[in-house]
Amino acid sequence: MHLTLRRRISLLKGAIVAGLIASAVVLADRFGFSVFWAAPVVVGLAWYLNRRVATWVAIRAHHRFTALVEQKRTAEAHELMHELRELYAGSVAALEQLRMNESLVYSTSGHHAQAIALLESIDPERLSAPWRPWYLNNLAWSLAHAGQAARAVAMARESIAASDAAGDATVMREDLRAFQLGTLGASLVLAGDAEDAVAPLEQSVARGGKPRHQAARAFYLGEALRALGRGDEARAAYDRAIGEAPDSEHGVKAKAALERLAIYR
Question: What is the pTM assigned to this prediction?
């Protein structure tokens, strides 16, 4: 049976309140004090824990959404996003953030025009400050892959500047700077500036990350090195991409690139 996010939160809150009341009754009986005197403590703990429960369920749902996007389970991702929108219906900032996350469904499946349209409909000022660098980075990635590489380069640099200005404030567990460097490098490659692309791509790969992300970074590093005539290094980068995630979009592209290099070797 599928439980909606609201239903899960409601059940957990009920269980917490019931557990606190039962504990208060047991302790009152054991130590000989009136349950009446424990009421303020029970109410305070219930209020605090209920707030934490909603936050915990929401965070788990966001992680679940990210996993569904990466697994390209699009229908389930959209269904979960619908539930999240209902959960955050009263928060403008949260709804803007959710639209940003929803754009990942489109960009991950290669529908970058749709991702751009959704992202550009968002008011970045309504996003909480730690999310803005991610917003700029995601928009830059889709712009680069939708034929707007020059604009993507500027947007990627703006993302890096925004996170520098925010200091240590960040969100999500992934390494934001690895994404930013990878996006900047890929954008530079697609803009025809292979020479400037090498350093950020090398740094991005060196920072590590999930295999699918590493495959994309290594692929674009191979593209930059190939454009500079550094064939052996390009082959090593393509091999790295294939080794990270052979069946991913960029793992497949790396295989094709290696075949092209073999022909002209």
Answer: 0.73
CA distance linking residue 18 with residue 22, whole number of Å: 6
Alpha-carbon gap, residue 119 to 212, rounded angstroms: 22
What single-letter DSSP state applies at residue 265?
-
Whole-angstrom distance, CA of residue 151 vs CA of residue 157? 10
What's the pLDDT tens digit per position in 96-148? Answer: 777 777 788 888 888 899 899 989 998 888 877 788 899 999 999 999 999 99
**How would you label 1-37 residue by residue, b for 16+ Cβ within 10 Å and e otherwise?**
eeeebeebbeebbeebbeebeeebeeeeeeeeeeeee
The CA distance from 57 to 190, in Å, is 40
List Cβ neighbours of 171 (8 Å cut-off, separation of 6 or more): 128, 130, 131, 134
CA distance 195 to 176: 23
Distances (CA, A) of 226 to 163, 183, 200, 233, 263: 31, 18, 16, 8, 14
Task: Compute the C-alpha angle 163/83/124, nearest 5°.
Answer: 25
> Considering only CA atoms, which of 46, 84, 47 is closest in space to residue 63?
84
CA dihedral over 256, 260, 261, 263, signed as positive or negative: positive
Nearest to 156 by CA among 123, 200, 125, 195: 200
Residue ranges in the chain assigned as alpha helix (H) = 5-31, 35-70, 74-87, 92-108, 112-120, 132-144, 149-166, 176-190, 194-207, 211-227, 231-244, 249-263
